[in-house]
UniProtKB/TrEMBL annotation:
Name used for this protein in its record: RasGAP-activating-like protein 1 isoform X2
Lineage: Eukaryota, Metazoa, Chordata, Craniata, Vertebrata
InterPro entries: C2_dom (IPR000008), C2_domain_sf (IPR035892), PH-like_dom_sf (IPR011993), PH_domain (IPR001849), Ras_GTPase (IPR039360), RASAL_RasGAP (IPR037776), RasGAP_CS (IPR023152), RasGAP_dom (IPR001936)
Keyword Metal-binding among record annotations: yes
Keywords, comma-separated and alphabetical: GTPase activation, Metal-binding, Repeat, Zinc, Zinc-finger
GO molecular function term, any single one: GTPase activator activity
C2 domain sequence ranges: 1-105, 116-231
Length: 781
C-alpha cells in the first residue's frame, strides 16, 4: 500500500509590513520552504506594504517532513534583499485540523541561531569496562549545513556533551558537507543518567563562533536503542517569543493531505459505480455516489474534489458523460434562468477545472501575445474619472496638463487597440480549441436549450457557455496572468489597472451586453460601441464552437507517472559541461533549448532540432544547468523528479559541488568516485495542471469524501420513515406512484454502502499488517 502526502498552500496577502526602502515602502515577496528546501517563490509586489499575491501551490512531500516556513523579503535592485520576517508551521500544527489553517499569522523575527538546516550522521555505543561505563560517539559526517561565511560555506566542528564532560572534533574548513570520522569517548560520572547532546558550530577566527544546529538524546534512548544513522539538526530550545507585532502579518491557507493508497483492484468496484452513475437519468438519481459527494462536500474541498473527479473520468475516457451528468442535474433543478451555473456547485467547479486541465495550452495560445504586449508597452489607460491621474499622460503642449477628455480618448484608443486582437484571437480559435472542450460545450448548449426552449430565453444557451469560457477562463487569466502561467511576475499597479479594464471588457462581452448601462460603472460607456459590435461575433463564434461531432476521448488508467514519449517540460536553459581543470565563468554557460520526456533529456541550439545528451557508447556526462530564477529551477527539478520516479537506478545522494583540484569542492573528498554527500530530494514535487493521471489516488480521495456522507446516505434511503419524503423531494411523486424508483434507489444505496465497507476492511487489513511489521522490526530513534 502506497502512502501519499501533499500540502495545499495558498499565500493570499500581507498587511502592515514594515518599510524597507528610502521611499517609505517595500517590494515584498515570499519564499516557501519545506524542511529548509525552497519549493516556491511568489512574485514581487512592487511598492506595497499590503501586498496581494493569491498564489497557490500543491507540494507533494515525503511522509517524514517536519515543518513548513514562509519568509517575507524586500527585493532590492542593488545588494542583498532585506529579510522582513518569517512564519514557521510544524507538521503537527498543520495536521491538527483536517480543514487546515486559514488565518492571519504574525511574522516573527528571523533569529540566526534558529535558522539551522542539515543533518548529522552518528553512531553511539554504550560500553562497560573495568573503569566503569563509557560512551563512544562516532561522529562520521554532516550534510547540507547552513552557510555562515561570506564564501557561502562554513568551517564546521562538532562538540559532544555528556553530563559535565565535553569533547570536540577537528574543524573542517570551507565546506557544508564535512567528513570527520572521529570517535570521541566520554566516561560516566557519579550521579543521575545524563542526556547526550551534539552541537555543530562554525569556527570563526575573529568574533564568536556561529551555531549550526544540535541533536539531543535522552538517557533511556541511549540505554535501550543507541543512536545510529542520520539525524536532523535542531535549533536551541528557547521560550516562544512574541510573534513580532511590528513586522506585519500574512494571510495563509495551508492544508495537509495524507492518505494510504491501496492497490488498484481494491478500487475497481467504486470506479465501476462512479462510471455507471453518469449513464443513468440524472434527474431521478438520488443515491448516486456523485449526488452524495455533492451534498457532503463544501468550500475549498469542492474544488479539490472536482479536480480529482475530472481527472478520474478523463482517465476512463468519460469526462464528457461526467460533465453532461452534472449539467443535467444542475439544469433540471434550476427554476430561475438568471441563476443558472451562478453558484459554486459541483457542476460549475468541475467544468472550471476541466477547462484548466484540458484547455491551458489553448488559453496560452490565444491570450499570451496580447498579454505580453500589455506588460511590455506599459501604456497608461484609465476611463474612470475618479481614478484618472492627468499628470501620467505625457503630452507636449503649451496649454499645460492634458484634459480629462484627452486622457479618456487616448485610453479608449489604447483599450480598443488591445481588445481588438484579443477578440480576433478568440473568435478565430475554433479550430485550436481542444475537441473535448468543444464537445462539453455542445452538450451544455443542448441541455440548456431543452430545459428553456422559450423565445425569451434564446440567449441562455450562449450565456451558459460564455459564462464558463469568458467569465471563468479568459477574463480571470487576463486579470491575473501569473496565476495562469501567462507571466512569471505579477503586474505593477499601472499594468494591473490596464489588465482590470481589459478583463471587465471581456467579461461584458461574455455576458452578451446584458448589464451594459447598469450598475456603478457607467464610465465604461465609451467602450459600449466596441462591446456591442463584438457580441454578435461572439454568438457566431459559439455557434461554430459547438458545431462538432462526438469524438473518442483520450485517456487511460495507466499508473506510470510520465508516459515515456510525452514531453514533460521544455524551454531555454543555460548549460555547461563539466570542466575539472577550470573555474566556471559566466561565458562558459551557453543558452540551449531543452526537452524532458519520460525517457530522455535532450537539447539543441534552437527548438527546431534536438541532440540527445548521451554519446554513442552510452557514457553519462555531468552537465550543469542554470535557471533564470528559483521558480523556474523548482519547476524543472519537479519535472525531473516526476520523470525519473520509475527509474530504479536513480541516485539517493549526489555532489552539489564540482570535482576540481583533485577533490570535491562540496565535501572535500579526494576520491572522484566517492558517494554523494547530499541527499537527492526526489520525493518533493510541485503539483501542476499538466500532471499525469493517477486513478488510484483520485479514487482514494473520492472514497474519503463519501465516508463523510455515509450516515446521511443510510438514514435517507435505508430507513423506511425517510423514504417517502426523499422520493417525493427527488421525483415529485409518492411511494405508490414510484415503487420501481423506490426499489432502485434502495438497491443503489445498499450497493454503495457495501463498496465503502469493503474499502474500510481493506484499509484496516493493510494497517494491521503495517502494525505487525513495525512490532517485529527494531525501533529507531
Amino acid at each position: 500500500m502506497a502512502k501519499s502526502s501533499s500540502l495545499n498552500v495558498r499565500v493570499v496577502e500581507g498587511r502592515a509590513l514594515p518599510a524597507k526602502d528610502v521611499s517609505g515602502s517595500s517590494d515584498p515577496y515570499c519564499i516557501v520552504k519545506v524542511d529548509d528546501e525552497v519549493v516556491a517563490r511568489t512574485a514581487t509586489i512592487w511598492r506595497s506594504l499590503s501586498p496581494f499575491w493569491g498564489e497557490e501551490y500543491t507540494v507533494h512531500l515525503p511522509l517524514d517532513f517536519h515543518h513548513l516556513a514562509f519568509y517575507v523579503l524586500d527585493e532590492d535592485t542593488v545588494g542583498h534583499d532585506d529579510i522582513i520576517g518569517k512564519i514557521s508551521l510544524s507538521r503537527e500544527a498543520i495536521a491538527a485540523d483536517p480543514r487546515g489553517i486559514d488565518s492571519w499569522i504574525n511574522l516573527s523575527r528571523v533569529d540566526p541561531d534558529a535558522e539551522v538546516q542539515g543533518e548529522i550522521r552518528l553512531s553511539v555505543q554504550m560500553m562497560d569496562d573495568v573503569r566503569g561505563r563509557c560512551l563512544r560517539c562516532h561522529v562520521l559526517q554532516a550534510r547540507d549545513l547552513a552557510p555562515r561565511d561570506i564564501s557561502g560555506t562554513s568551517d564546521p566542528f562538532a562538540r559532544v556533551f555528556w553530563g559535565s564532560q565535553s569533547l570536540e572534533t577537528s574543524t573542517i574548513k570551507k565546506t557544508r558537507f564535512p567528513h570527520w570520522d572521529e570517535v570521541l569517548e566520554l566516561r560516566e560520572l557519579p550521579g543521575a543518567p545524563s542526556p547526550l547532546r551534539v552541537e555543530l558550530w562554525d569556527w570563526d577566527m575573529v568574533g564568536k563562533n556561529d551555531f549550526l544546529g544540535m541533536v539531543e538524546f535522552p538517557p533511556q534512548v541511549l540505554q535501550q536503542n543507541p543512536p545510529n544513522g542520520w539525524f536532523r539538526l535542531l535549533p536551541f530550545p528557547r521560550a516562544e517569543e512574541d510573534a513580532g507585532r511590528n513586522l506585519g502579518a500574512l494571510r495563509l491557507k495551508v492544508r495537509l493531505n495524507e492518505d494510504r493508497v491501496l492497490p488498484s483492484p481494491y478500487y475497481q468496484p467504486l470506479t465501476e459505480l462512479l462510471m455507471e452513475s453518469v449513464l443513468r437519468p440524472a434527474e431521478e438519481d438520488a443515491a448516486s455516489p456523485l449526488v452524495v459527494l455533492e451534498e457532503v462536500t463544501l468550500g475549498d474541498c469542492r474544488q479539490d474534489l472536482a479536480t480529482k473527479l475530472v481527472k478520474l473520468f478523463l482517465g476512463q475516457g468519460l469526462a464528457g458523460p461526467f460533465l453532461d451528468y452534472l449539467t443535467r442535474r444542475e439544469v433540471a433543478r434550476t427554476t430561475d434562468p438568471n441563476t443558472l451555473f451562478r453558484s459554486n456547485s459541483l457542476a460549475s467547479k468541475s467544468m472550471e477545472q476541466f477547462m484548466k486541465l484540458v484547455g491551458m495550452p489553448y488559453l496560452h495560445e490565444v491570450l499570451k501575445p496580447v498579454v505580453n504586449r500589455v506588460f511590455e508597452e506599459k501604456k497608461y489607460m484609465e476611463l474612470d474619472p475618479g481614478k484618472m491621474e492627468l499628470g501620467r499622460t505625457r503630452r507636449i503642449s503649451f496649454k499645460g496638463m492634458p484634459s480629462e477628455e484627452h486622457v479618456r480618448e487616448t485610453s479608449l484608443g489604447l483599450l480598443t487597440g488591445y481588445l481588438g486582437p484579443i477578440m480576433d484571437a478568440i473568435v478565430g480559435s475554433v479550430g485550436r480549441c481542444p475537441p473535448a472542450m468543444r464537445l462539453a460545450f455542445k452538450q451544455l448548449h443542448q441541455r440548456v436549450e431543452e430545459r428553456f426552449p422559450q423565445a425569451e430565453h434564446e440567449d441562455l444557451k450562449y450565456l451558459a457557455i460564455s459564462g464558463f469560457l469568458f467569465l471563468r477562463f479568459f477574463a480571470p487569466a487576463i486579470l491575473t496572468p501569473k496565476l495562469f502561467d501567462l507571466r512569471d511576475q505579477h503586474a505593477d499597479p499601472q499594468t494591473s489597472r490596464s489588465l482590470l479594464l481589459l478583463a471587465k471588457a471581456v467579461q461584458s462581452i461574455g455576458n452578451l451586453g446584458q448589464q451594459l448601462g447598469q450598475g456603478k460603472e457607467l464610465w465604461m460607456a465609451p467602450l459600449y460601441p466596441f462591446l456591442l459590435q463584438s457580441i454578435s461575433r461572439v454568438r457566431d463564434f459559439l455557434d461554430r464552437l459547438v458545431n462538432v461531432e462526438a469524438v473518442g476521448e483520450a485517456g487511460g488508467s495507466a499508473r506510470a507517472l510520465v508516459p515515456p514519449s510525452v514531453t514533460v517540460r521544455e524551454g531555454y536553459l543555460l548549460k555547461r559541461k563539466e570542466e575539472p581543470a577550470s573555474l566556471a565563468t559566466r561565458f562558459a554557460f551557453k543558452k540551449r533549448y531543452f526537452w524532458l520526456s519520460g525517457e530522455t533529456l535532450s537539447y539543441s541550439k534552437t527548438p527546431e532540432w534536438q541532440v540527445v545528451t548521451q554519446d554513442d557508447a552510452g557514457a553519462l556526462h555531468t552537465t550543469y544547468l542554470q535557471c533564470k530564477n528559483v521558480n523556474e529551477l523548482n519547476q524543472w527539478l519537479s519535472a525531473l523528479r516526476k520523470a525519473s520516479a520509475p527509474n530504479p537506478d536513480k541516485l539517493a545522494a549526489c555532489h552539489p559541488g564540482a570535482f576540481r583540484g583533485a577533490r570535491w569542492t562540496c565535501c572535500l573528498q579526494a576520491e572522484r568516485s566517492a558517494a554523494g554527500c547530499s541527499r537527492t530530494h526526489s520525493a518533493v514535487t510541485l503539483g501542476d495542471w499538466s500532471d499525469p493521471l493517477d486513478p488510484d489516488a483520485e479514487t482514494q480521495m473520492v472514497y474519503r469524501q463519501l465516508l463523510l456522507g455515509r450516515d446521511q446516505l443510510r438514514m435517507k434511503f435505508l430507513e423506511g420513515s425517510n423514504m417517502a419524503t426523499t422520493l417525493k423531494a427527488d421525483t415529485g411523486k409518492g411511494l405508490r406512484d414510484c415503487p420501481d424508483a423506490l426499489a432502485q434507489q434502495r438497491t443503489a444505496a445498499t450497493r454503495l454502502l457495501e463498496v465503502l465497507e469493503d474499502l474500510d476492511r481493506a484499509h484496516e487489513e493493510f494497517q494491521q499488517r503495517e502494525r505487525d511489521h513495525a512490532a517485529s522490526s527494531p525501533l529507531r530513534p
